[in-house]
Design brief:
Helix content is about 45%, strand content about 15%. With about 775 residues, the protein is α/β, with parallel strands linked by helices. The relative contact order is 0.08. The structure holds adenosine-5'-diphosphate and magnesium ion (MG). Adenosine-5'-diphosphate (ADP) binds next to helix 17. Adenosine-5'-diphosphate binds near residues 354, 356, 357, 360 and 535.
């Protein structure tokens, strides 16, 4: 529902009634008047200007009475606008329909994936600036953001020695003067900020020599008669769009809200809206984008106003509906079941070199049951590094084999593919299956041969990298696809592989635990198996957080480890924003280490090192020819080197806990205990406290939950786990748990009554617009 739909209802009733004929119309008191005011009220809503205009014209047409002719004309001129599908058609139009958005602006917006009117309406503020307090210029504080008003006393372009120029304006308010500088967009400011202009300025105050100045501040030109206090005083701020100054962006969003805000439908059932005390949808959009003066800035920033919460709840409702629909759709697909008889299963398990752990048995029972269905399995198997996921892939492949089908296992890197190939081969042979390896380097002739082997049943399992997706690879009789480290693959890639067979069963494996609250949202209870328990024989990695001053102690542990003939990983952080400095840091660390350990073979790998060389270094490390591997996080989900027992992480505070947990899974895999030294540099009480969780806990799940508590879902989603979960605009799956469960209940309730949303075509379209193929990311 929306204000617009209410208004349309108020017009339609009397309009249709009146058109039944004068006798009918006369029976109702002042039908023309009722209709006229309904039209006028609708014209006041935040709808497109041309719509308002037509409504006002219609209203005016009735002033001289409601003749049959006038009514016909009105009905005709408003037919398209009053149609139930008008709002969604309007909102789906290109963003250039928003007044003020020209072709160039539309292009800039497109880079942020803002393509339609609706996209711009739902481009929500990331923060709010409180400009209720206008500060005297003499009181401006360096290092803080502030708002002030004044008059431009001088302005002009200033050339720099290097040939560049900037625009400068000096603003004074009687208490003092301050400089404003622009290094880009000089032209626009030159025209607007002539001496004498009255302005309201907001931005960060900085120091330049002895003066204060602001760079690229936000400036409103005040008309002669406005007081600064009359301008909107809590101002939304949006994430930057390249090529659009913040003020312009704000103006465009405002234009979108004013020209279409009341067309947006709220889909949550009224009962839920009432129960959660949420705001009406139209006012939610208005207040989130253009907050009223009375709203509490703290709650705005916190996104906890009833307006924000309405949008949160709407978003979660569409998410739940979208996911549930997708789940149902997957379950409706048909494929051949892969069945392992009880006898065959017992034989297969007896042929394994070990007995399954309790968790493995449970997960296997779930997988086996899925495979036996006529709809393709779509299961995520999550378990820490070393919990034994691979053997479950082998058993699933055995089920495929028993049903005359082949299996493909996909790994993110060549090294991992090779390791999987060896493991699978060892496990599969006693079960009567053979595995083959296919990577980017496999020549076409061998690829063709592989297809023949699969066809003839000489090979049952293909292990490979993304080369498996390639058109030139033929995978006959494919019944099962296993994806290791599934979040490392793009959606398109995963889908391409799934398309190779006829709806193959899919098992995605991941070492990155998803906290239960999030997993439930996305997978429901059904399609998610978990391994917590480790197979016997592997102790936890003994982990210590140490200060950067502990260099001697670290070195002595290094020499100890080397003396025992074991190997060492040294990991440096690498993030895009500080890539140069990070690489320098790693390179310097590597050189220092080489000096400190003469005669010990060490290698450095990072993303800037050429692929072949990198692979060689990794292979040398795996073979023991290189004893110390210094790396940025590229080894993270990487090589299995049983002889590596010590992991040193530099700047550990810059890593996520889950990431560190995965990293330490690299050591102590060969029966000897593993050690991890996390160097917190700089060391702060917070970083130590956070990292100490790793000293205490060896459970990836516990660690993920802790990380989630500390950093919030936003952060958590921003990390590499993101592949599991859809991107939300406003809602936070953890913080908004209450709204999430309300949305889940409401969604289930609706789908129970209307499974295919046939009775709510508008809602169905809204889900498609909001999520489209984006939910595919979550599963396939
Ligand atoms: P993951 O892929 O989950 O990190 P793997 O499948 O590589 O773990 O298994 C780790 C190691 O544990 C392998 O050497 C594997 O043979 C062994 N393993 C797996 N399951 C068991 C078990 N039930 N008992 C003993 N060893 C096991
Ligand atoms: Mg594995």
């Amino acid at each position: 529902m929306s204000r617009w739909r209410d208004a349309v209802g108020a017009i339609r009733g009397p309009l249709e009634f009146a058109r039944r004929g004068p006798e009918v119309a006369e029976r109702v008191h002042d039908l023309a008047g009722t209709l006229r005011s309904a039209l006028a009220r609708a014209a006041e809503l935040w709808v497109p200007p041309e719509v308002s205009k037509r409504l006002r014209e219609a209203s005016a047409r009735l002033e001289s009475g409601a003749s049959a002719e006038a009514l016909d004309e009105i009905a005709k001129s408003l037919a398209s606008v009053l149609a139930p599908t008008f709002p969604e058609r309007w909102l789906a139009q290109p963003v250039s329909r928003v007044p003020g958005v020209g072709p160039k602006t539309a292009q800039a917006l497109a880079r942020k994936e803002i393509a339609t009117v609706e996209d711009l309406l739902f481009f929500l503020p990331r923060a709010y600036e409180d400009r209720r307090e206008i500060v005297p210029i003499e009181k401006l504080e360096v290092g803080r953001s502030a708002a002030f008003s004044g008059t431009v006393t001088r302005s002009g372009v200033v050339p720099l020695r290097n040939g560049r120029r900037f625009f400068q304006a000096i603003v004074s308010d009687g208490t003092g003067a301050v400089q404003l500088k622009w290094f880009r967009g000089i032209q626009t400011f030159q025209d607007r900020l002539a001496p004498g202009a009255r302005v309201l300025v907001a931005g960060d105050v900085r120091r330049y020599r002895f003066a204060k100045e602001l760079h690229h501040p936000d400036v409103e030109i005040l008309a002669a008669e406005t007081e600064p206090g009359e301008l909107p005083r809590i101002v939304p701020s949006y994430s930057a769009v390249e090529g659009l100054p913040p003020r312009t962006l704000r103006r465009l969003v405002e234009s979108a809200v004013r020209s279409a805000g009341d067309l947006v439908d709220g889909w949550l059932p009224e009962a839920t809206v009432a129960e959660l005390a949420l705001a009406e949808i139209g006012s939610a959009l208005r207040e989130v984008h253009l907050p009223s003066v009375g709203l509490d800035p703290a709650r705005l920033r916190d996104r906890s106003t009833p307006y924000h919460l309405r949008l949160v709840a709407e978003e979660l409702y569409l998410l739940q509906l979208g996911l549930e629909q997708r789940r149902r759709e997957l379950h409706r697909r048909v494929t051949d079941p892969l069945v392992l008889s009880n006898d065959a299963e017992a034989r297969a398990r007896a042929a394994l070199p070990f007995a399954l752990t309790g968790d493995q048995q449970r997960a296997w029972a779930e997988i086996r049951a899925d495979l036996a269905r006529r709809s393709p399995m779509n299961r995520l198997l999550v378990g820490d590094v070393g919990t034994g996921k691979t053997v479950l892939a082998v058993l699933a492949a055995a089920a495929a084999h028993a049903s005359g089908r082949t299996s493909a296992l996909l790994a993110p890197t060549e090294i991992l593919a090779e390791q999987h190939f060896e493991t699978l081969h060892r496990l599969a042979l006693p079960l009567g299956m053979r595995a083959a390896l296919l990577t980017g380097g496999t020549p076409p002739r061998e690829r063709a041969e592989l297809a023949r082997w699969l066809e003839r049943g000489e090979v049952q399992i293909v292990v490979g990298t993304h080369a498996l997706f390639s058109e030139s690879v033929d995978l006959p009789r494919l019944g099962l696809v296993v994806i290791d480290e599934q979040h490392r693959f793009g959606v398109a890639q995963r889908r391409a592989l799934a398309r190779k067979g006829e709806n193959p069963h899919l098992l995605a494996m991941s070492a990155t635990p998803i906290p239960r609250s999030l997993a439930l949202t996305v997978f429901g209870d059904l399609d998610h198996s978990v391994l917590r328990e480790r197979p016997p024989g592997r102790g936890p990695v003994e982990t210590r957080v140490v200060p950067p001053t502990a260099g001697r102690a670290v070195m002595s542990q290094v020499t100890e480890t080397l003396r025992r003939g074991e190997q060492i990983f040294v990991v440096y952080p690498l993030v895009e924003e500080s890539e140069k400095a990070d690489l320098k840091d790693a390179t310097r660390g590597f050189e220092r280490l080489r000096k400190a350990l003469p005669g010990v073979s060490a290698a450095l790998v990072h993303g800037r090192i050429e692929r072949g060389e990198r692979a060689r270094a990794m292979a040398d490390f795996a073979a023991g020819r290189v004893r110390v591997l210094v790396a940025t996080t590229v080894i993270e989900v990487g090589v299995d080197v049983p002889n590596a027992t010590l992991l040193i992480v530099q700047h550990a505070e810059r890593f996520g806990l889950a990431q560190l947990h995965q990293l330490r899974g690299r050591v102590g895999r060969g029966g000897r205990p593993g050690h991890a030294l996390l160097i917190a540099d700089p060391i702060t009480p917070e970083s130590v406290e956070r990292l100490a969780i790793l000293e205490r806990s060896d459970s990836g799940f516990e660690i993920a939950e802790a990380e989630l508590r500390i950093r919030g879902a936003g952060e958590w989603l921003g990390t590499r786990q993101a592949g599991h979960l859809p991107e939300l605009r406003l809602a936070d799956l953890v913080r908004h748990g209450e709204y999430l469960s309300a949305a889940r209940v409401a969604a289930a309730d609706l789908l129970a009554r209307d499974p295919n949303l046939e009775k709510s075509p508008g809602l169905r379209a809204a889900i498609a617009r909001r999520w489209g193929a984006r939910l595919d990311l979550v599963t396939h």
